[in-house]
Write a structure and sequence with these properties.
The complex is a heterodimer of chains A (about 260) and B (about 325).
Chain A lengths: L2 H23 L7 H13 L8 H32 L1 H14 L8 H8 L3 H25 L3 H9 L4 H38 L7 H10 L3 H29 L9
Helix pairs in contact in A: 2-10, 3-4, 3-6, 3-8, 5-6, 6-8, 8-9, 8-10, 9-10
Chain B lengths: L1 H25 L6 E6 L6 H8 L2 H4 L4 E6 L2 H10 L4 E5 H10 L4 E6 L1 E3 L1 E6 L12 E4 L5 H12 L8 E4 L2 H10 L4 E5 L2 H7 L3 E6 H4 L6 E6 H6 L1 H20 L1 H12 L3 H8 L2 E3 L5 H13 L7 H8 L3 H9 L1
Parallel strand pairs in B: 1-2, 1-3, 7-8, 7-9
Antiparallel strand pairs in B: 3-11, 4-11, 5-12, 6-9, 6-10
Classes of the chains: A mainly alpha (about 260), B alpha/beta (about 325).
Amino acid sequence: MNRELIYRLLPLILLVVWHVAAEVISSPYIPSPVSVALSLVRLTLVGDPNGYSLLLHMAASSYRVLLGLAAAITSGVILGIAMGLNKTAMLVLSPIIEALRPVPPIAWIPIVIFAFGSGLKSHVIMVWIASFFPILTSCVDGVKGIDHAYYDTAKLLNLKGLRLVRLVVLPGALPSILTGLKVSVGVGWMVIIASEMVGVRKPLGLGFLALYMKDLGLMPELLATVAAIGLSAKLMSFAVRLVEKRILAWRRAPSS
Amino acid sequence: MTRVRILLIGILLAAITVYGGYYFFERTGEAEVKIGYLRGDLHQLALFVALEKGMFEEAGIKVSTVVYSNGVEMMDGFAAGEVDYGYLGIAPVILKSVNAGVDVKVLAAVNLEGSALIGRQDIPDLSMLEGSTIAIPGFGTVQDVLLSLILDNAGINRRDVSIVRLHPWDMIAALESGSIDAFIAWEPYPTKALRSGVGKPLAYSGDVWPSHPCCVVACTSSFYNKKRDLIKQLLEVHLKATEWIRENPRLAAEIGAKYTGMSVDDVMEAMNHIKFVVHPNVDEMVVYVEQLKRLGYIEGEASEILNSLLDLSVLEEVESES
């Protein structure tokens, strides 16, 4: 049989295996893909017992991640450029960054919740903590990786300060920054789900919904929520790739 | 040969690490019964008394304990085989047995009443709760159901409040910081909030629904089928511990203080809102089923659900012999 056909059919084969296993084992803890799909539709159209649609939960979590990412991009790029261009900034900040970076983001959750409660502030701070370091390190690497010929040209054209940053440093470091952003999106989603599981101010968010469904013992709905989490993270990563394609169009070699 | 030796030493070290790690970090020892209870829940004082006064050892039973954050998680523990026998709320027992097919038997009652809705000091009464954020220990818990009843009585639609999930031990700090406007929890957390001036009582569960069932003793059906004699001994201990609480409230409060991390005075005050019993109020349990259905959590016929869950035969044997 054509190998490529098998690879394309593999997801379908796995679904069939899952369905058969669910039917054979017949346990509430292993729902069939059909019941999960139906739950996905039901959660979207009818909503959870509070009446909130799955789409609203996806929007709430995405909103929190986006705010956290915005904070991480702003602070990460500013600090990254400063550390990349200035030796003193690098000397002063590097030991602090290296001390904090290895701490798993999730370890900060109890401290953040204790200090800021379980509302939007905490969620945004958590995503910021998780996303900041990948963006910072990739920005520093990007700035340091800019060909010195560009700096020499900039010197000749008397480009200094913010103009230098805007016309040389930022475009030069952008590919690296966007690579860091792609990593940050994944980490940000991991953290927001954990943060929402610990506490939310309003009963909205995919992490909250997952725990809610788990508490009620509704496994198909729980798996549907997990699928929604994967879909939301995937959509955001896809959006970043689209932005990357657009912004970095100038990097593509012209066709002959 | 050297490479083979290194490989063998590596395998040996790996085996020692894996087994050693399991032995020190995971093993709970050889116990006849693994008993679950809820962290900081004064309703389960009978179990704490039995453990502290050596009543299980006296009966010749070797026990180990497993602590959970709420009854819903303990039901997951039953399903996973982590625990055989436990003290938990009747609402999660009903919820998870219906939705997740967790096969348990309810053997006896542990307490009636004993929860309270506590609000910020500036909330004058229940009517001001519309639009507020209220914390519960978990969805499908006794407190979740009680909150629904309290809101119904106050004429507030549940959709007009935000209900969030917090551990009871986080609720007092959350109320103090303004993250939430009210919480409903099991004693002694409400009493602690009142006595530390953080909140005020908006409703005691015993006033809203007098003598309502709360915690029960339950075990897995497989444990019940295999160890009926042991269950009889466990329920004898439960009966003895419950009577001891009634006869020695101050000493029981000292034990309660140890398990809840609160002062003895706080615990003594909290005990005034709890009725420690062994015989369940079966008729009132129907209200839990109806409320869980109203909340959209479960479906099914109340009598059918309760008949499949309740088995008081061992308790009746113990009570007739005592």
